[in-house]
Amino acid sequence: MLNRRQTLALLGGVAAATALPFAARATSQPLKTLRIGWQKNGVLALAKGQGALEKRFEQRGISVSWAEFSSGPPLLEALGAGAIDFGPTGDVPPLFAQAAGGNLLYAGTYRGSPAGSAILVRKDSPIQSIADLKGKRIAFKRGSSAHNFTVKALRSAGLTVADVTASDLSPSDAAAAFTAGQIDAWAIWDPYFAVAEKRPETRVLATAEGIVESWSFFLSNGDFTAAHGDVLTEVFDELTIVGRSAQENLDETIKTLSKITGVPEDIQRVALTRKGSDLGSVAAISDGAVAYQQALADEFFDLKILPKKLNVSEVVWKGRPA
């Protein structure tokens, strides 16, 4: 069982965008280093641990550097500013990044498990249903996939975000606040969800199953993509190989990901065996993915969460074959 210090150490090992050891690249130069942002989950984390992309590009003289992020919003801030070239995120962060004028493109998709996101409460909490969240303090990272989940979960009970006290907290800060009893509920995703779920004082109020689809995306910097689309195509080819192999050998994958991320094997197993989880589900941006994002953008604009209307199709990379 993880104690509080171990949990916070796991949740807190994150590189902030302001501390990135990268500068915006000059796209006219030959590519020497592929700069990737990553999070503690998924096929990209596995590729990092295996050195798969380093091996793929070794003969081309391209090195790979990595910067870790706790969530999508700071990752896309760095990507849109040209500090990194490529990275993964949930559904909401790209909308905020596009609205802010970030120089980025949707490059690919992967599907997670809706069971891998949840709203958590303390075991002894009087909150027994989503409707009971009215007037309560709920934490989620603004602009993250948990933001979308919270909006739709509240709606399923006839509530809106205006009916709760929303706290914009990073996963590590929310974990500390949850443990200290400073918030009533916490909307979060794996592996942070799986970590918290193991603690005896935690109770799952609801998962995202039946509430919201689980779309996630790979995004790339616009200038990088224009100059090095061939590299991006190879990245996706390699991630597909890594993901399919990993899904076919889950026992070994769990051990490997645990070493890479520091997330214990029992927690990795929970996250990777949730219903619908598939590391091999790397794909091109489909019409369905664009339609999902456009509907979400329209919804968040109507709710005055986004500051402007967006046309998602304007920031979709057309270069990757289906």
Kindly report the spatial arrangement of strands forming the biggest sheet: 7-6-8-5-9
Low-confidence stretches: 1-22
Order of helices and strands: HEHHEHEHEEEHEHEHEEHHHHEH
Tell me the number of strands.
Answer: 11
Number of domains: 2
Q: Describe the biggest sheet?
A: 5 strands, mixed
CATH architecture of the largest domain: 3-Layer(aba) Sandwich
Question: What percentage of residues falls in helices of 4 or more residues?
Answer: 40-55%
**Assembly classification:** single chain
With helices defined by DSSP (H or I, 4 residues minimum), what is the helix count? 13
Q: What is the CATH topology of the largest domain?
A: D-Maltodextrin-Binding Protein, domain 2
CA-CA gap between termini: 44 Å
CATH uppermost class of the largest domain: Alpha Beta
Radius of gyration: 19 Å
